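Colleagues,

For the teaching module next term, I've prepared a clean inverse folding example: a structure given as tokens, and then the sequence designed for it. I'd like students to try predicting residues themselves before seeing the answer, so please don't circulate the second half yet.
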């Protein structure tokens, strides 16, 4: 075991043992955390406006502070951007993370020292549990994909950007020494150039741990290596970074000290590339011990395309339920995407999914949720988000000790309703999974588009098989339709009444998903946070030219 692995184990074990004890008494831990947050922030502008100083119980807090989305929080954040202090928290933010909003304006989320330390604790425990199950994950280089730490500044000079980029820059010297890719690569704005540069550094080294939030990023990296394999070999051999890549001169200068000729590795890559029909991580990263990425929700659909690129036994572990707003779980096993709720990091409330739009929905605590049920999660964080509706639906899959195991299901209200059927993306995913089993066809990627004019859904399917008969594809479409009728009574009623017509199957050409995701990510504010819409209405990337066949079911 490397020195870094030993140090990570020592720190992680200490934190884990403390946290594991908390999981026996989740309600007590949550009450103490809430009281501490209210007491610490009672003299802030938000605390005074909502009477934090007089709040004693969770009930007081719920009665005094309404559930709010970002637009209700935005005026307070605007004050912070203007330079006012002690607005949301006694501890002023040192930066903001930036993410997309619902109104077209981006959301700026405050980041404080407390939130940074909380995330560091969770990450250390995640890594410790990975090392316990996969001791070789830190034997070689680590490939972590992050976004730029600084993407701009507020009028008063406070930086906004990616917290992951800031952490990457400011990690311990021992961990930075393990990074396969210099931070400056992640500041490259041109996505094609950035992915090429990532692979230029990563393919030249043995990698034992790969971490990226979005699994579709892995597809982009693999495609970059496959498309530019000859150029990559030349750059590795000569210690260069091709001039064809659109990389600013200042960034090139920063990267130059990290570029060294490696003819032996180039020769090995050349041999690997010529010996196989495809050029995949299985070939150039044989020492890879673990892939960490999101596995739940709509982004998890990309995993079916990614797993064949790796050895069959390659473990994938979810990195946890996290977002720009909060990091909320610790995943301690490879199976599934559920993680233990981070009790000492945020205060959590849960609203049953079916009650979210009712006049008086129930608000439940960590000790009141039930396994198998889905909830909207409401978060109170040390960064100053109070009873914040992140518009995420999570599912409680079970319990670790007495603490809920939670997995991300989907964004809230993630549905299409052409004729009142209110079709959820989770129902679509379940129907496709069951239909594949019953018909025996495998789908590499999919997207369902509501066709309003035809009153039907168009199922865009990229098949995993090179050849499939039209008859089998039609049977797959019919099976999906039948499964949706079983899962959704409104769908079944609308289909029987003829108001909703049978879906059409659009067989897409091979490589459609990679192109779609690549185009989407290329226009996204941040590639690591991009999530494709598996169920929706037509968008600019739904092109007729991408369809090989249109088959009626």
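(Answer key — instructors only)
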């Amino acid at each position: 075991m490397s020195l870094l692995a030993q140090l990570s184990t020592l720190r992680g074990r200490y934190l884990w043992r403390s946290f594991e004890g908390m999981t026996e008494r989740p309600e007590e831990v949550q009450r103490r955390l809430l009281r501490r947050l209210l007491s610490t922030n009672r003299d802030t502008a938000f605390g005074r406006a909502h009477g934090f100083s007089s709040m004693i119980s969770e009930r007081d807090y719920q009665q005094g502070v309404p559930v709010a989305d970002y637009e209700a929080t935005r005026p307070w954040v605007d004050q912070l951007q203007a330079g006012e202090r002690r607005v949301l928290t006694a501890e002023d933010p040192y930066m903001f993370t930036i993410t997309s909003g619902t109104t077209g304006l981006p959301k700026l989320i405050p980041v404080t020292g407390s939130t940074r330390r909380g995330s560091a604790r969770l990450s250390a425990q995640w890594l410790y549990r990975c090392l316990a199950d996969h001791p070789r994950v830190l034997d070689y280089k680590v490939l972590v994909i992050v976004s730029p730490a600084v993407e701009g500044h507020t009028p008063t000079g406070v930086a906004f950007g990616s917290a992951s980029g800031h952490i990457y820059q400011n990690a311990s010297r021992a961990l930075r020494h393990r990074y396969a890719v210099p931070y400056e690569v992640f500041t490259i704005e041109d996505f094609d150039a950035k992915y090429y540069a990532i692979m230029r550094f990563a393919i030249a080294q043995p990698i034992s741990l790969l971490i990226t939030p979005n699994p579709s990023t892995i597809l982009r990296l693999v495609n970059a290596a496959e498309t530019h394999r000859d150029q990559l070999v030349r750059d590795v051999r000569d210690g260069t970074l091709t001039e064809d890549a659109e990389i600013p001169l200042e960034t090139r200068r920063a990267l130059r000290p990290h570029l060294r000729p490696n003819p032996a590795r180039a020769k090995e890559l050349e041999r690997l590339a010529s010996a196989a029909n495809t050029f995949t991580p299985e070939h150039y990263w044989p020492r890879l011990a673990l892939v960490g990425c999101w596995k739940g929700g709509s982004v998890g659909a990309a995993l079916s395309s990614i797993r064949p690129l790796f050895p069959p036994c390659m473990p994938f572990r979810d990195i946890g339920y996290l977002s720009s707003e909060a990091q909320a779980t610790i995943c301690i096993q490879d199976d599934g995407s559920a993680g233990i709720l981070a009790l000492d990091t945020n205060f959590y409330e849960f609203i049953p999914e079916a009650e979210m739009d009712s006049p008086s929905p129930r608000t439940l605590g960590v000790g009141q949720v039930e396994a198998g049920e889905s909830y909207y999660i409401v978060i109170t964080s040390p960064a100053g988000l109070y009873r914040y509706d992140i518009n995420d639906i999570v599912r409680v899959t079970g319990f670790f000790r007495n603490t809920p195991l939670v997995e991300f299901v989907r964004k809230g209200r993630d549905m299409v309703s052409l004729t009142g059927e209110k079709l959820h993306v989770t129902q679509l995913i379940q129907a496709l999974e069951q239909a594949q089993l019953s018909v025996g066809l495998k789908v590499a990627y999919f997207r369902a588009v509501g066709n309003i004019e035809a009153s039907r859904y168009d199922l865009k399917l990229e098949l995993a098989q090179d050849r499939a008969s039209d008859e089998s594809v039609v049977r797959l479409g019919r099976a999906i339709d039948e499964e949706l009728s079983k899962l959704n009574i409104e769908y079944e009623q609308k289909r029987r009444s003829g108001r909703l017509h049978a879906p059409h199957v659009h067989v897409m050409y091979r490589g459609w998903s990679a192109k779609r995701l690549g185009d989407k990510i290329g226009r996204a504010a941040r590639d690591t946070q991009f999530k494709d819409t598996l169920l929706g209405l037509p968008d600019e990337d739904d092109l007729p030219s991408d369809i090989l066949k249109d088959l009626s079911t």
